Amino acid sequence: xxxxxxxxxxxxxxxxxxxxxxxxxxxxxxxxxxxxxxxxxxxxxxxxxxxxxxxxxxxxxxxxxxxxxxxxxxxxxxxxxxxxxxxxxxxxxxxxxxxxxxxxxxxxxxxxxxxxxxxxxxxxxxx
Length: 127
Prior knowledge:
Layout: E1 2-6, E2 11-15, E3 20-25, E4 28-32, E5 39-43, E6 46-51, E7 55-60, E8 63-68, E9 71-76, E10 79-80, H1 85-126
Parallel strand pairs: 1-9
Antiparallel strand pairs: 1-2, 3-4, 3-6, 5-8, 6-7, 7-10, 8-9
């Protein structure tokens, strides 16, 4: 099978010669083999496992999986991979901490913009 993992802003991975895929869905865990019928599955945050010559693990956020023939497309909000299963939890925590820091910075900038806009609007109304 061919596995393609899409994020909102880029293609995360394109993997060929995948023997099987295991995902977490809203209905439970599902395995996909090349002969499985075409389908669509709603993914929940969890571990996506696929096997080529060895097992690979990815942490994925919620999204969709679409299987058509030999092609499997996974579209998720976020994905983290490239590490061993035991280290995946630490990697995810670090990613979430970075996301939280970025979110705080954005919120701080928005509040500055809002206060600047309101002060200019107040000055404009006084004219």
